[in-house]
Automatic annotation (TrEMBL):
Record-given protein name: Cation/H+ exchanger transmembrane domain-containing protein
Alphabetic keyword roster: Ion transport, Membrane, Transmembrane, Transmembrane helix, Transport
GO-annotated cellular components: membrane
Topology of the protein relative to the lipid bilayer: Multi-pass membrane protein
GO molecular function, one term: antiporter activity
């Protein structure tokens, strides 16, 4: 049964207003003087402080609107970027985020991204799919094929090269498993049949998307090796991880102390991420693969993931959102409203139709099918990860990147109210 938490709206709103005022005053005071002599290390510390405070404030604000915290954290990143701070106070933004600070934020954000993707892989267990069986498989298939095909229909005419069209189609096929799981938990659906089906379908859907991404990257990279050589190296790495590293990890970690499990987990994720980065397959794929081969269903796994997740979610991911915000210029969409609406409509409609069709084929009624269509539309942080990857590799330009950021925000923000309409629930996020 879901737990409803009552908030004092007046006190919560006053806290948010005062917090935003304090942050704004601090930014103005620090960046107002052109003669400031704060060194780069000091500016980096100031930037991190502001990012973390703003992330918490925005997360608190959207909770009052029954939204998952990730929506507010992304909005906090946008506030610090060219879309808001750069538009209203460009000198403050330039003082706060000079090139060396941006580089430091980018590197720290990549560390958080690797940790997040590693945890995403480690927490996926194929054995959990058995409880949902055929329904999850059918929903995952339709929620991948229909959005991917729809993305290709608009991507091929819009994009200059086939890999970029495939990338757009892939971006529209994503479901954000971590955000979906959080929403299901907060509305009391995590242990229901529909909750289990949606999570299992999201696991299968995202696993297929990562596989497609791995196949696209060799054709989109800027390295000297041929795409087939890169793919062959990737297959060889998977074989080594599955048949050599995984058995060794199972033996090593069976009796290892928790501190050793933490060290092996972090070092292994970073090391494998470095290998795939050098292969031209990007670091996030290596982190995801190492997470998949880590031993599961142990007390140490739960304790270790919570330790990594605590620091990653509280500190590193807000810096990733800030980095996304610094690279997102919503002004670039001002002359592309038609394109924005087209991509947004295709993203929502294709995923919803895929969820409904898959659920009906699996024997669920129309109401249950509608709920699954809504749940599978949640894109959240996973969409941002994919969009950031596309921008860094030159697969999409800044305009399409901004559009995908908007798609991630809108589809995630719509999930809870749409779910409330279908389930008649009134839970509040805590």
């Amino acid at each position: 049964m879901a737990t409803t938490v009552r908030n004092d709206p007046l006190r919560g709103t006053a806290t948010i207003v005062l917090g935003f005022g304090a942050v704004a005053l601090l930014v103005w005071a620090l960046g107002g003087g052109s003669g400031s002599t704060v060194d780069i290390t000091g500016k980096f510390m100031i930037a991190v402080t502001l990012v973390l405070l703003l992330s918490q404030l925005c997360g608190r604000a959207v909770r009052l609107l029954r939204q998952p915290p990730v929506v507010g954290e992304v909005l906090g990143g946008l506030l610090l970027g060219p879309s808001v701070l750069g538009l209203l106070a460009p000198s403050v933004q330039e003082w706060l985020f000079p090139a060396p600070v941006k580089s430091a934020v980018q590197l720290t954000a990549q560390l958080g991204l690797v940790a997040f993707i590693f945890l995403l892989g480690w927490e996926q267990d194929v054995r959990d799919l058995r409880s949902s069986g055929r329904a999850a498989t059918v929903v995952a298939a339709t929620c991948l094929v229909i959005p991917f095909g729809s993305g290709l229909l608009i991507g091929v005419p819009l994009m200059p090269a086939l890999p970029t069209a495939f990338f757009l189609a892939l971006a529209l096929s994503i479901t954000a498993l971590p955000v979906l799981a959080r929403i299901l938990h907060d509305v009391g659906m995590a242990e229901t049949r529909l909750g289990r089906i949606s999570v299992s379908a999201a696991v299968l859907d995202d696993a297929a998307c990562w596989a497609v991404l791995a196949a696209i990257l060799p054709f989109a990279g800027h390295h000297s090796r041929s795409p087939l050589t890169t793919l062959a190296a990737g297959v060889a790495l998977v074989a080594v991880l599955v048949f050599l590293v995984r058995p060794l990890l199972d033996v090593m970690l069976r009796t290892a102390p928790q501190s050793a499990v933490l060290t092996v987990a972090v070092a292994g994720a970073l090391g494998t991420a470095a290998i795939t980065e050098m292969m031209g397959l990007h670091s996030i794929l290596g982190a995801f693969l190492f997470g998949l081969v880590m031993p599961r269903r142990s007390v140490d796994q739960e304790a270790t993931t919570q330790r990594i997740k605590g620091f990653t979610v509280a500190v590193l991911l807000p810096l990733f959102f800030a980095y996304i915000g610094m690279n997102t210029s919503l002004q670039s969409v001002s002359g592309q409203w038609g394109l924005l609406l087209l991509v947004l409509f295709v993203a929502i409609a294709s995923k919803f139709v895929g969820g409904v069709l898959g659920a009906r084929l699996a024997g669920l009624d129309w109401r249950e099918a509608g709920i699954l269509g809504v749940l599978m539309n949640c894109r959240g942080i996973t969409e941002l990860v994919v969009a950031n990857l596309g921008l860094s590799l030159g697969l999409i330009d800044s305009t399409m990147f901004a559009i995908l950021v908007v798609v991630a925000l809108v589809t995630t923000a719509l999930t809870t109210p749409a779910l409330s309409l279908l389930t008649k629930r009134q839970e509040v996020f805590v």
